[in-house]
Design goal:
It contains 8 helices and 14 strands. The chain is of the alpha/beta class. The structure holds pyridoxal-5'-phosphate (PLP). Pyridoxal-5'-phosphate (PLP) binds next to helix 2. GO terms for molecular function: alanine-glyoxylate transaminase activity; L-serine-pyruvate transaminase activity; O-phospho-L-serine:2-oxoglutarate aminotransferase activity.
Length: 393
């Protein structure tokens, strides 16, 4: 496609308008636009999290999550230690092994879960992978097995278009790492038995606390199956063969940060104020669409995700496609650094294990006006870096 330059400013001319907020990191992600530390003053600091105010806050965090995400009333929602990683590993260690597992990965976080099953749990399993930018054919999996997958591959910008191919009458469980999808897509709860995410992603909360959502079938498995390996206290969801129900009412396994809980509650309040899940999705879609418009106008940049149907609306991963770029990795790093130095885009370099390029977070806490203000800077940084490359050649 031909390059269409903006009418008023050629790409090599330094833009004058900067984003009001240059934070486009893929985690921890930008705080909601209304965030202010003084909003956290109602946190019950210095009090036990098991006292009435603390318990009420934890329960509110659970129930407001349910309300915004549309989680069915018979699904359990728990706040657990160690962020999304803790929640997902707790689920794998507690549930897997009863039947073979199908491990699905199309980028580095999914690949990490494959490693856990292959090298640590060592259970019977098959591995289904796709290269960065591609996706696994989810319709070709055996759902009589347990299936572990990541909804939105944060490091490749590839996400499932929907859960339609997952059978409702499956015999196995589906374990879904939805950390960069929850609050940005309409998750099909009837297709998900375990769903995990962290507050630090789409809602711009703090890290260290994970959310674990269990379907009734997942609870049934927990109460009917005991894995053959030892489980540390921090992973234990059952006692005497019964689910520890308290965890799903805010009686956490160990001590949470009430400051982080307050911060999450503030994010949820903001999410409700902009129209809940549909408002959040619309904001992420608008951000991603602004980038799509830019990519369509510039023939030197492209999405890592090859199929538009699988393109993420949160972690948008881009690659430099121009053959004028000599060393892709060095070039992408230099562009990201230039943008950071200008204070127009922070933390947008591709993930360390992913192909060279940029990753721009587009989740709902990011303002579309900031994405739009940043993109001319990206064009400028590309042109400037090309010039610099020529000089040093
Ligand atoms: C898909 C995915 N899974 C897991 C993680 C790990 O999350 P956390 O550091 O919150 O445990 C991340 C973090 O970026 C992620 O993107």
């Amino acid at each position: 496609m031909a390059i269409q330059k903006p009418a008023t400013r050629p790409d090599h001319v330094r833009p004058s308008i900067k984003p009001a907020n240059p934070r486009f990191s893929s985690g921890p992600c930008a705080k909601p636009p209304t965030f202010d530390l003084t909003n956290l003053s109602d946190a019950p600091l210095g009090r036990s999290h098991r006292a009435t105010p603390g318990k009420a806050k934890l329960l509110a965090a659970i129930e407001t999550t349910r309300e915004i995400l549309g989680v069915p009333a018979d699904y359990r929602i728990g706040i657990v230690p160690a962020s999304d990683t803790g929640a997902f590993e707790m689920a794998m260690w507690s549930l897997l092994g009863e039947r073979p597992a199908q491990m699905v990965a199309w980028e580095s976080f999914g690949a990490g879960w494959v490693t856990d099953v292959a090298k640590q749990l060592k259970i019977e399993h098959t591995v289904h992978t796709a290269d960065y930018g591609q996706i696994v054919d989810m319709g070709a999996l055996n759902y009589d097995n347990d299936v572990c997958f990541t909804w939105n591959g944060t490091t490749s910008g590839v996400r499932l278009p929907s859960g339609d191919v997952i059978p409702a009458d499956r015999k196995g469980l589906t374990l879904c790492d939805a950390t960069s999808a929850a609050f940005a897509v309409d998750l099909p709860w009837d297709k998900l038995d375990v769903t995990t995410f962290s507050w630090q992603k789409v809602l711009g909360g703090e890290a260290a606390h994970g959310m674990l959502i269990l379907s009734p079938r997942a609870v049934e498995r927990l109460e009917s199956y005991t894995p053959p390996w030892p489980l540390p206290k921090i992973f234990r969801l059952t006692k005497g063969g019964k689910l520890i129900e308290g965890i799903f009412r805010g009686e956490t396994i160990n001590t949470p940060s009430m400051l982080c809980v307050e911060d999450y509650l503030q994010s949820l309040t903001w999410a409700n104020s902009i129209g809940g899940l549909q408002g959040l999705i619309a904001r992420a879609d608008a951000n991603a669409a602004a980038i799509t418009g830019f990519v369509e106008q510039h023939n030197w940049i492209d999405f890592l995700a090859s199929d538009p149907a699988t393109r993420s609306n949160t972690s948008v991963c881009l690659k430099f496609s121009s053959d004028q770029v000599a060393d892709g990795a060095a070039f992408a790093k230099a562009v990201a650094k230039r943008l950071a130095d200008e204070g127009v885009a922070l933390d947008i370099g591709a993930y360390r294990d992913a192909p060279a390029g940029l990753r721009i977070w587009c989740g709902g806490t990011v303002e579309t006006s900031d994405i739009k203000a940043m993109l001319p800077w990206l064009a400028w940084a590309f042109e400037t870096e090309l010039e610099a490359q020529k000089v040093s050649a």
